[in-house]
Description:
The complex is a heterodimer.
Chain A: H1 3-10, H2 14-17, H3 27-59, H4 64-99, H5 106-127, H6 140-146, H7 152-182, H8 200-230, H9 236-239, H10 245-274, H11 289-306, H12 320-351, H13 357-380, H14 382-388, H15 392-421, H16 427-453, H17 469-499
Helix pairs in contact in A: 1-3, 3-4, 3-5, 3-17, 4-5, 4-7, 4-10, 4-15, 5-7, 7-8, 8-10, 8-11, 10-11, 10-15, 11-12, 12-13, 13-15, 13-16, 15-16, 16-17
Chain B: H1 6-10, H2 13-41, H3 50-73, H4 80-89, E1 94-101, E2 104-107, E3 111-113, E4 117-124, E5 129-134, E6 140-146, E7 154-159, E8 164-169, E9 182-188
Parallel strand pairs in B: 1-4, 3-9
Antiparallel strand pairs in B: 1-2, 4-7, 5-6, 5-8, 8-9
Amino acid sequence: MSIASTIVNGTPIFGKIFSVDRSTGLEEINAWPALMIMSSFVWLVVAGLLGLVMPTTQIFDLSTDHFYTTLTLHGAALTFPFSFQLMMGVGLHRSGGCVGKAVTGWLPALSWLSMNLGAAILTVAVLMGLKVSVVVMFPLPLVGAQMGVWSMESVIVGFTGIYLVLSCMILWYPLLVLKMMFFGKKRAELVLSERSLNDPGMLGMLLAAVTLILTGLPLVVVGTTLLLALYKILPMSLAAWAAEPVVFQYAFYLFAHNLMEAMALMVSSAMYATLPLYLADGSRKLYSEKLANLALWILLVTSVTSGLHHFITFYPNQPAALSYWGNIMSWGTGLGAAISIFTVLATIWQHGLKAGPGIIAVLVGWALYILDGASAIVTSNIVWTYQLHGTMWQSGHFMTVILAMSMMWMGVLYHHYPVLTGRKLDPALGSLYVKMFTVGAFGAAITMLAGGAAGMPRRFAAWNQEGWMIYGDLIMVFGLILGASFVVYLYNMMKSREISAPMGELARA
Amino acid sequence: MLDLRMLDYVYTGWGAFWATMFMFVPFALMAYWVIRRKSLVDTGPTGLQPSEFAPLEGIWLTFAFIFFVIANLASLKYIPWAAASASVNGEPEVQVDFTAKSWSYDISNRQIEAGKPVRFSGRASDTQHGFAVYHPDGRVLFTMLMMPNTAKPTSVVYTFTEPGKYKVRCLEYCGIAHHAMQDELTVVKSH
């Protein structure tokens, strides 16, 4: 039994949900993905509880310290060890089955370890007092330590955690994807659904991996320099350039923005791979693979530099030309989305759909992603960003993109779960999950966008003014529905072991 | 004749909300109709060939492209930098300098005359800060992002049209008292 299977089996509660099916001989593509997916759901529980604490502190007028602590932890837990790790687990499982290669060795181990150890270390730092939000807001960590708001030790611990998380996303995971795609021998017994790089279902995985490495490397250089200085291995005089706020912020945002775009590329590719499997006529073909690939390429090309829209209100320190560029490229991603919309709906119209909770979850997540995309391009327009930047609109956009991608991966997981565990899920519970998620996620997203339109600030521990609390109350209500939907999702997986016999060879079919 | 003054509303925060809904709601209704029809009502394949979708594909992508171009072109007039150029040709600018530090503002002039273009120029002295000016009715008029150690101050030109008390808030998270970083500008009638 692999180390990953041993860890899964030894984990209370979650271990039973994700225990790996070893009867099919597919443990080599099941074990590490199962461990990653299991770990992501542990973090989802943490993130969900913290998410509810935020409106609670505001509604019951609790200490603002609690708000900023949970703000930092909730955002970090939801984005990295939940959402990214879920994507990593399901994506690797899909890649393994598509190219017939094992997900084993030191790279998956390092990916899992750096993500979870890093997130745990960051959690410790936040509990030590470091409250810098999910985007760090450099040089706030150093300034807070200088002002005595938190300790320099918490900054060093926090940066260590962030560095480990980043190393997973920028190095280990993308290298693993590239290794699986271009190196090693294909093993026929591991091929579940063979795909080539011409297939949009695989192309997105490759584009995303390359995007993560290339746009993340400047941040790796800056982060490594700073970390070495914090540990006093490098004199601060040599690290001063990396500690310049403009240098850090541009390196950070050009990666962070493209991290979201890379995740979008991956999830779009997963949708293009999954949708054909549920077509009513069994044709297993998209309306147009060329159009689907074109959408991915447009998204890639436009998104790489569209991150400049994060600094539009920094004028003239960010020159107007770069802001116009960020504006135009952001709307260019909308053209990719328009092509994607046409491809998906034309495919369903042309071939019919065998609707089940998994594919409907994917499509609901995709619809949420379109809502998010619309809100994103609107707020990338120079004029609108001057009125929306820093408001709850941006939090709504960020939360929605994470939820949309997570929903799509959770839908794809419906398809993979029987292969991973040898058990089936209950469609009625799956359907209940989709309905509750739809109400909770769309409700929360639209409420947060409306709050931003009304001027409600983000990352702000005083909602009870200017009539903003109504948005806070609604966020709480929709957040509870959203949380309940995740409980239903997990309950469905827990229940599956009781109602279904192991599938054995059926999983391969 | 189209009343272009409606653009004054379109390019506000709520205008952004309705623009988002304008893009999303028709898509959501169409997606719901297609998915419901082809998974519950008439699940069979339509037998249509991709070539038969081509005209619709062309119309859809052309519409999306034209909408994107119009939405951005129409916004040019409202860009605060464009307003800056316009102000140079008209009224002389009133200069308001400020420094943002954790967690307060040092503002050179808190009383402003309506109708005169004001150039706000600001710097951050410790960490990142924002400078968002709110209309008395609660909406954001504009916001600015400042980082320490920049060569130039962050700058915007804005002309107030109504007298009143305008709140200033930091919209860039800057630590545990971020929510308390507020100030106020008073706009008075033009003499």
